[in-house]
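Form 12-C: Joint structure prediction
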Amino acid sequence: MKSNEYDRRVWKTRQAIHDALSSLMEEKKYSKITIQEIIDRANVGRSTFYSHFATKDELLFSSVEDLLEILNQYIKSYIEHDEENPRLISVVDFFEHIQENSKIMKGLLKSEGGDLFFEKVEAYWNDGIEEYLQSKLPKGKAPKVPIKILSNHISSTLLSLLKWWVKNDMSYTPIQMDQYFRDLIDPCIDSVVSNHSTMD
Amino acid sequence: MKSNEYDRRVWKTRQAIHDALSSLMEEKKYSKITIQEIIDRANVGRSTFYSHFATKDELLFSSVEDLLEILNQYIKSYIEHDEENPRLISVVDFFEHIQENSKIMKGLLKSEGGDLFFEKVEAYWNDGIEEYLQSKLPKGKAPKVPIKILSNHISSTLLSLLKWWVKNDMSYTPIQMDQYFRDLIDPCIDSVVSNHSTMD
DNA sequence: TCATTACTGAACATTTTGTTCGATTTAATT
DNA sequence: AATTAAATCGAACAAAATGTTCAGTAATGA
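Section 2 - Result
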C-alpha cells in the first residue's frame, strides 16, 4: 500500500496547479480565471484537477492557507507578547513577511478571490484583538468606543495599511509602516486602557 | 418617432431586472447569481436583458449607481462644509442614508460584487479627503503620517465602520456612529492640522 | 519486480453565456 | 382611433466552461 500523501506525483501536480493559479493571478482577476486556463498552464489533465480540488475557490484557499496561517501567527504572538506595555506591540516583522510574499499578495489584491482571503484574515485578527482589548479593559469603566467597534477598527486598519502598502509598491520600510500603524492606532487604544503614556 | 429613454416599457424592464438582482442578492452571493436566474425572476426575455446590459457587472454598477452618487455627495459636502472647524464634520446624515438603503447595502455586503462597489466608493472618498488634508496641511510642516496614508486610513475607517454597522444590524444610532467615527479619527487628524482643540 | 496509485485524455452531459431574428406587443404621436 | 416606431418575446443557435466517467498508461513505494 502507498500513502498517497507522500507520493511525489501528488506533490508535483498540486504544486503545478498552485503555480499556475499564482501566475494567472498576476495577469488577471481571479473571477476571470477559468479552470481550463489553470489546467492548461499547469499541464495537468482535467480529471486530475478535480481529483485534487472540487472548485476553484477550494484551490484558492488551499493556495493561501500557509500564508493565512503565518499572518495569523504574527498577530497572535503580537497580541500575546504583551507583558509590560499595554499597547499592541510591533508589526515590523509582519510587514517584512508580507514583503517576502509580495507576489502572491499582489495577486490577491487584484482579485475578488482575494477579498475572500482578506475577510478571513480580518475576522481572525478581529477575534484576537477583541479578546486582548477585553482583557485590558479596566473593570467598571466603559470605553469611549465599544470594544467590538474598536477591535474591528484596529484589524481593518492593519489590513488597509497592508493593502495600501502593497498597492503602492511597498514604498516605505516595514519599520516606517509599523510606526504609522502605531500613530494611527495608539490614541484609540489609549481611550480603552488607562495607561496614558506618550510614546516615542 | 419615440424617444426610447422615456418609454414606459424601458423603465419597467430595467426596474424589473434591478429588482430581480436586488432580491437575489439577499439570497445568495453575487458571483453565484446567473443571468438566467435574473431574467427568470424579472420575467424578461434573454435578448431583452442583453439589450440593456452587456454583462452582469454592468447591471450591478447600474444598480448601485444612484447609491454611489449619493454617498459621494455626502462625503463631498462633508468635506467642503468646513469653514470654522478644521476637522471633518458630521457623518450623521451619511449613516442615516445608509439606514434607509439597508436592503441593498446588506446585499452588497454578501457579495464579491459588493467589493467592486465599495472599492469605487473608497477610491472616491480617498481623493476628496486627500485633497482636503492637503489644503489643511500647515506649510513647511511635514505630518507625522504621510497624507496619502492618512487619507486612505480615514476613508477605509469610514467604510469599515459602515460595513460593521450594517453587518451588525445597525444596532447603534447614526449619531452614535458619528461620534465613534470622530473618536477614532480626530486624533489622527489633529496630527496634521495644527489646531489642537478638544472637542465635544 | 510488482502491486498500487496517480495521471492522462477523450468522451460525454450540463450549464451558462451571448447572439440573432422574425413575430408580437406596447407606447407615443397625430 | 389609427399609425408607426420601438421594445420585448422566445426560440434557436453557437460557444465556452463546468463537472463526471472510465479505460489505458505511467510512476511510485515497498
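Section 3 - Comments
Residues 1-2, 4, 7, 9-10, 13, 44-48, 51 of chain B lie near DNA strand D (CB under 10 Å from a C1'). The domain at 61-190 of chain B is CATH 1.10.357 (Tetracycline Repressor; domain 2).
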